[in-house]
Design goal:
alpha+beta, globular, single chain, disordered C terminus, 2 domains, binds zinc ion
């Protein structure tokens, strides 16, 4: 099982410059390979006997010519350009499988990062040593001591640098079978709402609504940036300010989902959630900001890997299961239930329901009545593969893919 630990770095100014250079080489190689790929693809339309583009071929091509054409590339770890082209190959296979859009060119300053493969970095205590830089200070020690280190991805968000160390851990699948017998398992349903996540045992986790709260401030900052002269120092400075505000929103959301999912997995043996079509919902402009704030996609990704690591079961209810509309007391289906109705009364039995708690209770029932979950068939690793940002979930779970941050 692959697991990543993301640790903040404290590079000095010289190291910061070098890290930016590595990210630049990575981005340059990605864009170079993408242009080559596109050109090869076009040429093959004229002459089908020409070679098919591929990441292996393009990596060899870059290696053969970089000394002459891009000598500056030799100043950084050779992993930076190589791993970027491997990523491009993966982006194309995702595209061919219909999981992602056609790869696009990367822009400077957006997701600046590079990856170093195993054997080209070492970690000792709180130091990470990489070629050409030497020792970088890490804020904490690696959580997975003794595990095989697969790769390290170094990335920048606003003005902070992080290292995400991907490790291969021993499989916990065997331990999972030693959990409590099916009849004694604690099952909890969780209803994911825009303003709160509500569990069937009554626990409610209020979403931080980070974006909603920061929205005005962000808009003001962005407007101020756009008014400043292009290319000016002031504009750059303001740009950094905007990036920092975005980062704050991200950290706040991230902190919330991590705490909540850890808590949920610790408190139950079987966790049941809805199969939310997040991508479709983000298309709803009126709701999209609130939904992004509630981080439904991240919620599912984190629940999936945390449940797997803890040997617990995550059940994803069928997308058509009407968890909100069923009465958890008598099973009757409500005819009219709009999004705005936070409470409702069942026409069948007269029970009054809190909308979210009722949905969570139904989700719990769903798993308890489904024989599949009793025998653990719906394991966290058996997540459906192609659903909204859940897409990312399955992609992230696979080996050789981008690591998940923990
Ligand atoms: Zn009822």
């Amino acid at each position: 099982m692959l697991r990543a630990h993301k640790i903040a770095l404290d590079p000095n100014n010289k190291q910061k410059t070098h890290l930016s250079k590595c990210a630049g080489a990575s981005r340059f190689a990605y864009n170079w390979a993408l242009a080559e790929w596109n050109a090869m693809h076009e040429a093959r339309k004229e002459d089908p006997s020409l070679k098919r583009p591929g990441q292996g071929l393009l990596r060899r091509k870059l290696n053969a010519t970089k000394r002459e054409r891009f000598p500056w590339m030799l100043e950084v770890t050779k992993c930076a350009p190589q791993e970027a082209i491997i990523d491009l190959g993966r982006a194309f296979s995702n595209f061919f499988e219909g999981l992602a859009n056609h790869p696009t060119f990367k822009k400077k300053g957006i997701n600046d990062s590079f990856r170093i493969s195993s054997g080209f970095f070492t970690i000792e205590g709180k130091t990470l040593a990489i070629p050409h830089i030497g020792s970088l200070r890490m804020r904490e020690e690696l959580r997975y001591q003794g595990a095989r280190q697969v790769s390290v991805t170094i990335s920048r968000r606003a003005d902070r640098w992080h290292a995400s160390i991907l490790c291969e851990l021993p499989d916990t699948a065997a331990e999972a079978s030693l959990g409590p017998p099916p009849g004694e398992r604690k099952t909890v349903g969780i209803d994911a709402g825009v303003s709160a996540y509500v569990a069937s045992d009554g626990t409610a986790y209020k979403t931080p609504r980070a974006y909603r709260k920061a929205e005005r401030k962000l808009a003001r900052a962005q407007k101020s940036e756009s008014r400043k002269k292009k290319g000016s120092k002031n504009r750059k400075k303001q740009g950094r300010k905007v990036a920092r505000q975005h980062a704050r929103v991200y950290y706040s959301r991230n902190d919330f989902t991590h705490k909540m999912t850890t808590d949920a997995v610790a408190g139950a043996d079987v966790i049941v959630i809805e199969d939310l079509n997040v991508k479709g919902m983000l298309g709803n402009r009126r709701l999209s900001k609130s939904i992004a704030d509630a981080s439904f996609g991240e919620f599912r990704i984190q629940l999936a890997y945390k449940a797997e690591a803890a040997g617990k079961t995550l059940v994803i209810a069928d997308r058509h299961y009407p968890s909100s509309k069923l009465c958890s007391a008598c099973g009757a289906k409500a005819k009219l239930l709009t999004l705005g109705m936070r409470e409702w009364e069942c026409e069948g039995c007269g029970a009054r329901h809190d909308r979210d708690l009722n949905a969570a209770t139904n989700l719990k029932r769903y798993a308890e009545s489904s024989p599949a979950s009793a025998c653990g068939e719906f394991n966290a690793s058996a997540m459906p593969a192609k659903a909204g940002p859940g897409q990312a979930a399955s992609v992230k779970q696979e080996p050789n893919s981008k690591p998940t941050d923990v």
